[in-house]
Sequence to fold (175 residues):
Amino acid sequence: MIKKPCDKCNRMLEFPDSHAGRRVECPDCGDINVLPEIAPVAAKDRAEAQGLPPDHGPEKEVMVLAPANWRAHPFLTIFTLGLATLFLWFRNLGNRLYITNKRSILRTGFFSKSTTEVLHDHVRNVQVDQSFLNRLFDVGTIGISSSGQDGIEIVAHSVPRPMEVKKTIDLYRPL
Fold:
């Protein structure tokens, strides 16, 4: 129900929502009044509904993921008495996958750095690869490709909780 005071006599006019934006006549004074448009209700975005930072506004970190080496290679760790884990830890020391409310960023390297990023608005495909053992330890490889490139731009190995990461990225993608 739209309620608006008459422009001339201040009598309260009441009309159904279907009359929004129309010209109506005041029954008392005969003055022609224009009813206001009904503002659409702002819908919460999917991420905000899940308790994550909203898609609009400033960029905020949602997740920071480091490779889970021991969980990704448990038998290698056991058979080499931890030396392989030490090697993998040092190799992946600077590797991080950052998920923000605007983009995914992969930073690799300890001595030399490399950064690759994909805006969530341009994400075309998110791939999750897990072997049986990876599924048991809840790790995997995530590949993210955008509409602007031909192949996969971001490939992050030994990511903990990869399906949760994919669901988070999907919340910020325009589906």
